[in-house]
Amino acid sequence: MTIKRISSGGEYEAKVGYCRAVVAGGFVHVAGTVGQGDDVVAQCCSALEIIGKALAEAGAGFADAVRVTYYLPDRAEFASCWPLLSAAFGDNPPVATMLECALIDPKYRIEIELTALLPA
Length: 120
Fold this sequence. Notes:
This protein is an alpha+beta fold. It has helices at residues 11-17, 40-58, 82-89, and strands spanning 4-6, 21-24, 27-34, 65-72, 95-100, 111-117. It has a single domain, classed as CATH 3.30.1330.40. Helix 3 (82-89) links the parallel strand 4 (65-72) and strand 5 (95-100). It is globular. The two termini are 16 Å apart.
């Protein structure tokens, strides 16, 4: 099986020892991704852009997503992200889970992890 690793050059990739995405076994596994911005909506938008770039480099898109997990330090902030998420996934929503937990840095308000099926 061929494995392709995709890096976004994010600061934690080298510090922690991971890459943004791995293409293997017909799937694209995108690591938990945080975004930049002053609030949860800006960070969600930024994270989706980063994930979208990784998916595109792998040859996939949001329509190919099969699973997504959202991590937030405050679950009350999640609803404000719903319009962005609905727009990103459109008529092809993946299964989803939202967890309330601490993130690697308190400045981060959302982290998104995603798995997509490579198009045939």
